Amino acid sequence: MTAPIQKSDASPAAGPGEGSVPRQRAARTAHPPAPGPAREGVVLNVFSHGFLAVWALLIVLPLLWLVLSSFKTDSQIAGSAFGWPSNWSLDVFGRAWNKGIGDYFVNTVIVLVFSVPLTMLFGSMAAYVLARYQFWGNRVIYYFFVAGAMFPVFLALVPLFFMVKMLGMLNSYQGLILVYVAYSMPFTVFFMHSFFRTLPTAVFEAAILDGASHTRAFFQVMLPMAKPGLLSVGIFNTLGQWNQFVLPTVLMQPQSGDDPERYVLTQGLIQLQQQQGYETDLPVLFAGVTIAMIPMLVVYLSFQRQVQAGLTSATLK
Amino acid sequence: MRKGQYQFVTGFLFIPVALYLVFVIWPYIQTIGYSLTDWKGQSQTFSFVGLDNYVALFQDDVFLGAVWHNILFLVFIPVITILLALFFAFMVNAGGRSRAGGVAGVSGSKFYKVVYFFPQVLSLAILAVLFGAVYRSDTGGMLNGLLLKLGLIDAAEPIEWLNEPDFVLWALMAVVVWHGVGFYLVLFSAAMQSIPRDIYEAALIDGAGRAQSFFRITLPLLWDSVQTAWVYLGIVAMDMFVLVSTMTSGDYGGGPDHHSETMSTVMMRNFLYFGKSGYACAMGVVMLLLTLIVSVVTLRATRRERLEF
């Protein structure tokens, strides 16, 4: 083992794993590694990097391949899987946007602009009251909210369809918004409930002593203190609602011939996939998927720590 | 509690509870009622038929086949995903070069976690289009193209991955595993990092190797997360609607010739295509019961003495 290799090795990536670094660095300076275990370590290191790299390629290559395919011509796509694209023009993205992706994108954004903040507002309100006030029926209401996470959405679909129809909100933004908010409640209430429990009482009491009403104390004191929790749940709900497919499939179908098409992005992509099967313009489909992927990639890369932490703690609790 | 507080509590709870009741709880309850009727959905006229729908369900070969496919998913998806995720999590957290016998993570572990997790934020609809292209039945598909390059298939006879009764379920499972491994890697990784290093060091001093420390220390202390992962993957395996309905042939998927049918696709077809609402509701109830059974059995079967640290 030569010194430079060890040196490069002494700085593993930052992040949650860094806890072990100082101790090992100290251990190394104290005792130079024995040849036996060290060699075993190198073998294992090469081995693990090998496997990890293969899976990383398995994740990245299909996605890159798909993005590259949007620069191919239709006959190129059908011919050979690994031909290099010849049609380096961004026209295809414009074409995909006009073919419907633009409308689907806008529909999704319209729904989410209302559904995510409303989910956060109503979810936090319910969670806050349930977490910090004692009243008759508190536990019952809490379990009533949390139990919803246990049941498959398919159980509700048929009556839900007729409920929304009765309210005259099939294929309408407000219908989908309300349904999204309702189905996001179990997780939001559950997560925010445990978050509000951990907040200190002193600040709240000070606000009340200063004459703030309970409502005011919530909006001006407690809610701002819950920002980290809100961010995690917010990202989780945004991802979940952006990627939702089953609920819009049932609720967002044009009901008559002159009804406008209000498909959301996930539905629209599948729609486009079926159309392109007949019209043979596959680059448009791949460009559409690329357009749909980009916002998720941006959100994920900017918040990857919170996304990972949020989804992990959501599962573990 | 003072009077003002009651008003405040009621005020804050009213809208959330009302929304939740109307759109979630009430439909759940209604499903059970409708499952006992011959409701066709179009009109409000229907009559009570008792358990007829359930009796019909158990004679419906398509539905029984679907249940069987869900059971296959239920067995293979969690096993494969959890094993791969555990393997990668161990590599990321303990596969690095060891110094003085210590256990170290690989360098770049954060990079791997970021990349592996990415499929989790993509919608299943995107995956459906992506893997639809990967599994194309001509040589333009990524998988067939690869096999062709390796000389394993003949260009004249590419494999129709999603149209071969023998392959279609496995092709779908591969997508779910591809999608899920990164998430469970991060989950297990977080659990591994919360295990105190002292335990490993004590084991090392006692002469434990890597394999021993994995099976004797890491795995038992990780059991809670593995259990959670199993329940969540079980729920995924019971659903499968998006991938099957969009990637396979037939109305709401299930092709070729019902070889990839799942309970959810049969239900949606009966509801949205045949208009048999009552019958679809009965399927929903069966899905609920099976999901609950799976959760309870998983939690019971994997129960271990809880280890505190």
UniProtKB/TrEMBL annotation, chain A:
<keyword id="KW-1133">Transmembrane helix</keyword>
<keyword id="KW-0813">Transport</keyword>
<feature type="domain" description="ABC transmembrane type-1">
    <location>
        <begin position="105"/>
        <end position="303"/>
    </location>
</feature>
<protein>
    <submittedName>
        <fullName>Sugar ABC transporter permease</fullName>
    </submittedName>
</protein>
<dbReference type="GO" id="GO:0005886">
    <property type="term" value="C:plasma membrane"/>
</dbReference>
<keyword id="KW-0812">Transmembrane</keyword>
<keyword id="KW-1003">Cell membrane</keyword>
<feature type="transmembrane region" description="Helical">
    <location>
        <begin position="104"/>
        <end position="129"/>
    </location>
</feature>
<feature type="transmembrane region" description="Helical">
    <location>
        <begin position="46"/>
        <end position="68"/>
    </location>
</feature>
<dbReference type="InterPro" id="IPR000515">
    <property type="entry name" value="MetI-like"/>
</dbReference>
<feature type="transmembrane region" description="Helical">
    <location>
        <begin position="282"/>
        <end position="303"/>
    </location>
</feature>
<dbReference type="Pfam" id="PF00528">
    <property type="entry name" value="BPD_transp_1"/>
</dbReference>
<keyword id="KW-0472">Membrane</keyword>
<feature type="transmembrane region" description="Helical">
    <location>
        <begin position="176"/>
        <end position="196"/>
    </location>
</feature>
<feature type="region of interest" description="Disordered">
    <location>
        <begin position="1"/>
        <end position="35"/>
    </location>
</feature>
<feature type="transmembrane region" description="Helical">
    <location>
        <begin position="141"/>
        <end position="164"/>
    </location>
</feature>
<dbReference type="InterPro" id="IPR035906">
    <property type="entry name" value="MetI-like_sf"/>
</dbReference>
<comment type="similarity">
    <text>Belongs to the binding-protein-dependent transport system permease family.</text>
</comment>
<dbReference type="GO" id="GO:0055085">
    <property type="term" value="P:transmembrane transport"/>
</dbReference>
TrEMBL record, chain B:
<protein>
    <submittedName>
        <fullName>ABC transporter permease</fullName>
    </submittedName>
</protein>
<dbReference type="GO" id="GO:0055085">
    <property type="term" value="P:transmembrane transport"/>
</dbReference>
<comment type="similarity">
    <text>Belongs to the binding-protein-dependent transport system permease family.</text>
</comment>
<keyword id="KW-0812">Transmembrane</keyword>
<feature type="transmembrane region" description="Helical">
    <location>
        <begin position="229"/>
        <end position="248"/>
    </location>
</feature>
<feature type="transmembrane region" description="Helical">
    <location>
        <begin position="114"/>
        <end position="135"/>
    </location>
</feature>
<feature type="transmembrane region" description="Helical">
    <location>
        <begin position="12"/>
        <end position="29"/>
    </location>
</feature>
<keyword id="KW-0472">Membrane</keyword>
<dbReference type="InterPro" id="IPR035906">
    <property type="entry name" value="MetI-like_sf"/>
</dbReference>
<dbReference type="InterPro" id="IPR051393">
    <property type="entry name" value="ABC_transporter_permease"/>
</dbReference>
<feature type="transmembrane region" description="Helical">
    <location>
        <begin position="167"/>
        <end position="187"/>
    </location>
</feature>
<dbReference type="InterPro" id="IPR000515">
    <property type="entry name" value="MetI-like"/>
</dbReference>
<dbReference type="Pfam" id="PF00528">
    <property type="entry name" value="BPD_transp_1"/>
</dbReference>
<feature type="domain" description="ABC transmembrane type-1">
    <location>
        <begin position="67"/>
        <end position="298"/>
    </location>
</feature>
<feature type="transmembrane region" description="Helical">
    <location>
        <begin position="71"/>
        <end position="93"/>
    </location>
</feature>
<keyword id="KW-1003">Cell membrane</keyword>
<keyword id="KW-0813">Transport</keyword>
<dbReference type="GO" id="GO:0005886">
    <property type="term" value="C:plasma membrane"/>
</dbReference>
<keyword id="KW-1133">Transmembrane helix</keyword>
<feature type="transmembrane region" description="Helical">
    <location>
        <begin position="277"/>
        <end position="299"/>
    </location>
</feature>
